[in-house]
Amino acid sequence: MKMKNSVKLLFVFIIALSCHPAEAQTSNIDVVGGGTGLTDYAGFHEPKGILAKKKEMAYEDVDGNSFWSEGWHPAILEQFKGGKFRLRKIKLNFYTNDIHFLNNKNEEYLLTSGVIQKIVFIDEKDTSKVLARFEKFKETHDVFVEVMNSGETQLLKSTHITLRKMEYNQFRNESRFRFIPNEKYFIRHQNVITKLSSLSKSAVLEVMKPNTRQEEWLKTNKNKLRNEKEVVAFFTFCNSIESKE
Fold this sequence. Notes:
Layout: H1 2-17, E1 29-30, E2 51-54, E3 62-63, E4 73-79, E5 84-93, E6 98-102, E7 108-111, E8 116-122, E9 130-136, E10 144-147, E11 153-165, E12 177-189, E13 192-195, H2 201-208, H3 212-220, H4 228-244
């Protein structure tokens, strides 16, 4: 217990010494511990390379949502260099591919671009529960894509958002803008990523080339591979077979 407190005190002391403009956010950053339900996490690395600047862009005049979730969630973040740390309130912006976060004064900041490779959103009330996982891959143009399941075979989802100007509204006497989402899917199998032409049975099986056992499972479970839930269920079965062989 004394060692844990010493680590926290040392961390706060290091942040206090830095001349970074976001130093007021130190209470919103914590070294990852056992309470996350996930293991093998190192401490916070190079805070000057993580804390960036205040968010300047405002979306009040834009309809729709550009974030993975409209709410703020705690998350574990991993840098490309391997350091892992936790923030209590962050959002992932699909439009800019930025990570937003709040300090204790509810001031909104961005994390430095190009530093974070993985994001694991966790439940605020149950930190052992993972809400979603995101990762950057070169094959997906280094944007954050959602990893829909674990295992050797994974479904990946990329959400690209564009800003569209809508028709002039004579009642509001203005022209507004709207965020338009466009989702693309990929299969990651044995570290090879293949883009799907669509989320459909024909597209998935073209990549997977199922064996007799997998075909029988699809038939028995009446799984048509028509949506994310069905594809993830199929991949979970495929991964369970591979783990036993």
